[in-house]
Amino acid sequence: MSKESKETFNPELDLVLERIVEVPVELVWDAWTKPEQLMHWFTPAPWKTIDCRIDLKPGGEFYTLMQSPEGKDFPNNGCFLEVVPLKKLVFTDSLISGYRPSGNSFMTAFVTMESLGTATKYKAVAIHKDPETKKQHEEMGFMDGWGTALDQLVAYTKTLPK
């Protein structure tokens, strides 16, 4: 029996983005787990990610600071719940590092990766507490935003030295 968690998709509460990208899983993993790489692709342009801290362990910090095109900053504090190298990241904004309650609860995300040789089967699931929060995330542009960010991840990793 696997010790890994598995998201249970609820179409009334959850959003999913699934694709096969032509990037090896090692590069996708590094892009997600190395702050100096994540800041290149994480926020759909013209937004920017201007700061990032990653303590890659369950209970570790996952912090990003996004900046709008108008220069307004949007900090995102979260916590990793599960880290399975080259396979899975689970994080939430309901908790901050050390599993302390954040006072905010927008979503928990499961990002899974499966090696297909030179490509990766990529899946991101955002789970929400209620249909209103899911709807808010849809209206914020989940599919376009997370899809654009994934496109940016792919484009960025193709610029890395081989």
Topology:
Layout (H helix, E strand, L loop, with lengths): L13 E8 L3 H9 L1 H7 L6 E7 L6 E7 L5 E12 L3 E5 L2 E2 L3 E2 L6 E8 L4 E8 L3 H10 L1 H16 L5
Antiparallel strand pairs: 1-9, 2-3, 3-4, 4-5, 5-8, 6-7, 8-9
CATH topology: Alpha-D-Glucose-1,6-Bisphosphate, Chain A, domain 4
The overall pLDDT average reads 94
Strand order of the largest sheet: 1-9-8-5-4-3-2
Q: What gap, in angstroms, lies between the N and C termini?
A: 37 Å
Count of discrete domains: 1
Shape: globular
The topology string of helices and strands comes to: EHHEEEEEEEEHH
Low confidence ranges: none
Q: Which homologous superfamily in CATH is the superfamily?
A: START domain
Q: Main sheet?
A: 7 strands, antiparallel
Strand content: 35-45%
Q: Indicate the radius of gyration in whole angstroms.
A: 15 Å
- Level-1 CATH class name: Alpha Beta
Structural class: alpha+beta
User: What's the β-strand tally?
Assistant: 9
Helical fraction equals 25-40%
Please give the CATH architecture: 2-Layer Sandwich
Task: Walk me through this protein's architecture.
This protein has 162 residues and is an alpha+beta fold. It has one domain (14-159): START domain (Alpha-D-Glucose-1,6-Bisphosphate, Chain A, domain 4, 2-Layer Sandwich). The protein is 26% helix and 36% strand. It has 4 helices and 9 strands. The protein has helices at residues 25-33, 35-41, 131-140, 142-157, and strands at residues 14-21, 48-54, 61-67, 73-84, 88-92, 95-96, 100-101, 108-115, 120-127. The strands form 2 sheets. The protein has a 7-stranded antiparallel sheet with strand order 1-9-8-5-4-3-2. It has a two-stranded antiparallel ribbon with strand order 6-7. Helix 1 (25-33) packs across helix 2 (35-41) and helix 2 (35-41) crosses helix 4 (142-157). The longest helix is centred in the last third of the chain and has 16 residues, at 142-157. The protein is globular. The chain starts with 13 loop residues before the first strand and ends in a 5-residue tail after the last helix. The model has no long low-confidence stretch (mean pLDDT 94). This is Activator of Hsp90 ATPase homologue 1/2-like C-terminal domain-containing protein. InterPro entries: ASHA1/2-like_C (IPR013538), START-like_dom_sf (IPR023393). Pfam families: AHSA1.
